[in-house]
Amino acid sequence: MAKILTEFERGVLYAAVHLQHGPNESGLAADLLREAGFSDLDCSELDEYDKEALRIINEEKDMALLGLE
Questions:
Q1: Half-sphere exposure of residue 48, counting CA atoms within 13 Å on the CB side?
Q2: What is the CA angle 56-57-63, rounded to 5?
C-alpha cells in the first residue's frame, strides 16, 4: 500500500516538477529531491502532469522515485 505524501513532501515534489519544466533543469530538480531525502518517494497519488515531469527527473543519477507508471 502506498504511503500518503505529507504536505511538505508534496510541496518539494511540486517544486521539482516546476524546475523540470525550465530549460535543462532535470539535474537541479533531482538535486533538490536528493538533498531533501526524497529520491525514492512513492508518487503514485500525483496526477499525470506531475508524473510526466518526475519520470524525466527519475532518469538522473541516484533517483528511484516510485509509482510513476
A1: 0
A2: 125
CA separation (Å) from 9 to 14, 23, 24?
Answer: 9, 24, 23
Contact 44/66 with Cβ under 8 angstroms? Answer: yes
> Quick one: pLDDT at residue 1?
60
Grid coordinates of 30: 533531482
Q: What is the DSSP letter of 42?
A: B
- pLDDT given at position 16: 95
Q: pLDDT tier at 21 (50, 70, 90 boundaries)?
A: confident
Other beta carbons less than 10 A from residue 13's beta carbon: 24
Extract the C-alpha cell encoding 13: 515534489
